[in-house]
Design goal:
The protein is α/β, with parallel strands linked by helices. It is built from 15 helices and 15 strands. The chain has a domain of 183 residues: Rossmann fold (3-Layer(aba) Sandwich). The protein is 31% helix and 16% strand. It has a 9-stranded mixed sheet with strand order 13-12-11-7-10-9-8-14-15. A 6-stranded parallel sheet has the order 3-2-1-4-5-6, sandwiched between helices. A hairpin with a 4-residue loop joins strand 14 and strand 15.
Length: 480
C-alpha cells in the first residue's frame, strides 16, 4: 500500500514539531483534570421545564433545538451562534424572538450561568470540546452532537470531565433511544446475537468533498469574512486559518482540521449499538485497507478501514470493516434481499439521504446467524428470509422506547431517567472514530495499546492522539 507522500510527510512533521509540549499523553490528562473543585449541578424539579441554552442554532443545531423544544420538557432561554445573521440561523431567531442572543458562548455563561439548567451543543466537531468542558465545569448537563470531540485526547478529557463534575451527559446519536437500541439489547441478552466475529459497515452516499482536487497543496485562498460572522470565535482552539466559505456551514466536515469525515458523521449511527452491547471498547489495530484520493488536507474520495477488537470475556475477536465512497460498495451476503432506506432517518444538513446502490447500514456475522440493519433507529433483520422465519418464534419481545433521545436527556436532567448515550458509553465509540481518522490522515496502520491508550508503531500518530497545541487563549479548556 502506498504510504503518505512527501508533501504529506512534511506537513505532518511540521505539525508534529508543535506538539513537543504535549507529547506525554497520560501526563496531560492527569494535569488537565486536577486541582478544580466541581460545583453542584442544579437539576430542574420534576414538575418544571428545563431551562436550556442552545449553542449552535443553524443546520443540525437548529434541528436539535426544535427536537428539544417539541418534547414540551424545556424552555429555550439562550441562543448562541458565531453567525447571528446567516440564513441558516434566522429560523431559530424568528421562532424564539425574545430569547437572549450571544455570539460568544463564554459571554453567555458569564451573563446567564445562573439561569441555565442544561446546554445543547450543536456546533462543528472542532468546537465541541471547549464549550462542553466549560459547561461541565459550571455544573451544567450537556447534550453534545456526535462525534464527541475531534481528537482522542479531547474525548478522553470529556469522559473524565463528566465523571469529575458529575453532570448528566448525552451524545447526539439519536438511534440510541429508538427501536434499534432496544432490539439489539434484547436480542443480545436473549442470546440471539452472540459469537459475532465480523461486521461490515457502510455509508456510500456522496459527500461534500467528493470531486475536489486531491492534489491540493495548500488550504483555499482567503475570502472576506462575512460581517455577521465572528470568525475568531468560530475557530476556537484550532490553529489560525484564513476564512473561506468552504470551511463553514457543513463544509467543515471535509477537513481534518475541523471535522471527522464520513466516519465521524455516520459511524455513530451505524455501529453504535454493536459497539455498546458487544462490549467492543477500543481496537488494538486500525488498518486503512484502501484509500482513494488520499491527501493531507481533506478526507479521501473513498475509504475501507479495518478495526480489529480482541476477545472480550466469552466473546470472540471481532473485525469491523468500514466502507465509504460512492464506488466503494462492499459485497453483501447471499439472501441479503433489497437495500431499504428507512424513511425515519432524519434529514442531514443538506436534506434527506437519497436511496443508493447500498444504503447506509451494516451486516453482522455471527457463528450461526447473519443480521442486516440500517442506520439510526432502524431495526435488524435476520437473513436469509428462510432463516428469519425459522427464528421467528425464538425472538424475545422488544420493549418500546419510553422517550426519544432528546426527551431522554431532558428527563435525565430532571432526575426521571438515565441517559442512554452518556459520555462513558459514547466516549470510547467516538475514540474508535478518532483512531480511524488518524489512519485515514496518515495512510498508515495504527497499532494501539488499549491499556495505556497509546499508539505503539508510530511516534507521529501517537503525538496526534493529542492534536496540535490549542491556539493562544484557549489553553484553559484543556486544564479544567
Amino acid at each position: 500500500m502506498t504510504k503518505y507522500n512527501e508533501a504529506s510527510r512534511r506537513l505532518f512533521l511540521k505539525q508534529a514539531a508543535a506538539l513537543s509540549s504535549m507529547m506525554v499523553f497520560p501526563t496531560i490528562l492527569t494535569k488537565a483534570m486536577s486541582g478544580v473543585t466541581a460545583p453542584t449541578a442544579g437539576l430542574a424539579a420534576a414538575n418544571e421545564r428545563v431551562n436550556l441554552a442552545c449553542i449552535g442554532i443553524g443546520n443540525q443545531g437548529g434541528s436539535d433545538i426544535n427536537s428539544m423544544y417539541n418534547t414540551g420538557l424545556c424552555n429555550i432561554v439562550a441562543l448562541c451562534d458565531t453567525d447571528m445573521g446567516a440564513p441558516h440561523t434566522l429560523k431559530a431567531l424568528e421562532k424564539f424572538p425574545d430569547v437572549p442572543r450571544f455570539q460568544d458562548f463564554r459571554k453567555m455563561f458569564d451573563k446567564m450561568a445562573s439561569q441555565i439548567d442544561a446546554v445543547l451543543v450543536g456546533v462543528p466537531d472542532h468546537s465541541h470540546f471547549p464549550i462542553t468542558m466549560l459547561a461541565m465545569s459550571l455544573g451544567k448537563p450537556v447534550y453534545v452532537e456526535k462525534p464527541m470531540g475531534r481528537t482522542f485526547n479531547e474525548v478522553e478529557l470529556m469522559i473524565k470531565g463528566a465523571e469529575k463534575y458529575k453532570v448528566v451527559t448525552q451524545m447526539g446519536n439519536q438511534g440510541h433511544s429508538d427501536a434499534n437500541y432496544f432490539q439489539f439489547k434484547a436480542w443480545t441478552e436473549a442470546g440471539i446475537i452472540k459469537d459475532v466475529t465480523s461486521i461490515t459497515a457502510h455509508m456510500n452516499s456522496a459527500r461534500r468533498w467528493h470531486g475536489w482536487d486531491t492534489k491540493m497543496t495548500k488550504f483555499p485562498n482567503a475570502e472576506p469574512i462575512p460581517e455577521t460572522l465572528d470568525w475568531d470565535t468560530w475557530l476556537m482552539a484550532v490553529k489560525e486559518h484564513d476564512y473561506n466559505k468552504d470551511f463553514i456551514n457543513g463544509q467543515w466536515r471535509c477537513w481534518y482540521d475541523f471535522g471527522m469525515g464520513a466516519l465521524g458523521d455516520w459511524g455513530a449511527h451505524i455501529i453504535d449499538t454493536a459497539h455498546e452491547f458487544l462490549n467492543l471498547g477500543l481496537p488494538y489495530e486500525v488498518d486503512p485497507v484502501k484509500l482513494e484520493g488520499h491527501n493531507p488536507f481533506f478526507f479521501p474520495m473513498s475509504s475501507t478501514l479495518s478495526f480489529k477488537f480482541p476477545k472480550r470475556g466469552n466473546m470472540p475477536p471481532l473485525e469491523i470493516m468500514w466502507h465509504d465512497g460512492v464506488n466503494n460498495i462492499p459485497q453483501v451476503p447471499e439472501g441479503f434481499g433489497t437495500s431499504e432506506l428507512d424513511p425515519n432517518i432524519p434529514p442531514t444538513s443538506v436534506g434527506k439521504i437519497q436511496p443508493a446502490k447500498l444504503n447506509p447500514g451494516k451486516e453482522i456475522y455471527s457463528k450461526d446467524l447473519i443480521f442486516k440493519g440500517g442506520s439510526h433507529g432502524s431495526t435488524l433483520s435476520i437473513i436469509p428470509a428462510e432463516k428469519a422465519k425459522e427464528m421467528e418464534s425464538k425472538l424475545p419481545e422488544v420493549p418500546v422506547s419510553p422517550s426519544n433521545h432528546y426527551a431522554n436527556f431532558l428527563k435525565a436532567v430532571k432526575g426521571e431517567e438515565k441517559t442512554r448515550s452518556p459520555f462513558e458509553i459514547a466516549g470510547p465509540l467516538s475514540q474508535v472514530f478518532n483512531l480511524g481518522v488518524l489512519a485515514q490522515q496518515l495512510n498508515t496502520k495504527i497499532v494501539f495499546d488499549r491499556e495505556k491508550k497509546q499508539i505503539t508503531n508510530s511516534k507521529l500518530a501517537n503525538q496526534m492522539l493529542v492534536g496540535a497545541p490549542p491556539r493562544k487563549g484557549w489553553e484553559q479548556y484543556y486544564k479544567m
